[in-house]
Automatic annotation (TrEMBL):
Coiled-coil segments: none
Alphabetical keyword list: Hydrolase
Protein name stated in the entry: Dienelactone hydrolase family protein
EC number: 3.1.-.-
Annotated organism of origin: Phenylobacterium conjunctum
Pfam families hit by this protein: DLH
Molecular-function annotations in GO: hydrolase activity
Protein origin, superkingdom: Bacteria
Enzyme class: hydrolase
Domain spans labelled Dienelactone hydrolase: 14-229
Alphabetized PANTHER family for the sequence: ALPHA_BETA-HYDROLASES SUPERFAMILY PROTEIN (PTHR46623:SF6), CARBOXYMETHYLENEBUTENOLIDASE-RELATED (PTHR46623)
Amino acid sequence: MGETTTITTSDGSFSAYVARPAKAKAPAVVVIQEIFGVNAVMREITDGLAAQGYLAICPDLFWRIEPGVDITDKSEAEWKKAFELFNAFDADKGAEDIAATIDAIRADPGCTGKVGSVGFCLGGKMAFLTAARTDCDASVSYYGVGIEGLTGEAEKIQRPLMLHIAEEDQFVPKPAQEIIVQALKNHPQVTIHTYAGRDHAFARPGGEHYDEADAKLAGGRTLTFFAEHLG
């Protein structure tokens, strides 16, 4: 269903997976990867958004470290590599790469000009930074790791942001969640949903903590949010 495109920046070029909807012109959504690269799960999410009528694109944000990472959450060795990539990742450069992706897909003939973003795990943190640092029209963060250290950026958020927080997230402990919620709960552009009993990556199909009911609930909220803000 998808195709690969190349995005060029002043620092170099990187690839992105693109899935196109049936209609000729549509709003776009940037899918922001987990720590496993642009893998089958991310491509399926991108394809799924295209099936919902969006021009979807998933950029390779690890290209500066190792281009083309495509691993799973199924082995200890892959988890080890994923955390090494996570620790080596430069979030500031990643935000610049997402901004370049937004510009590229907005200029695509198949885009209406509206662009949203949705990120998971590391991508959830990057979706928060996307809301703060880019002209993305609407952003969605799923269980973003490290947002508690970035709440000072909240004052820069001028467009809608939705957060999905897993209350039992092993990578975002309750004190971190409290910091995030307290900093953002009264922000006029921010909507927060919490999921009782859910652990990190509850919306990752096939993942250890996948919960079908709450994954569907969060997914429905995300699509409603995009329909409202991307038109």
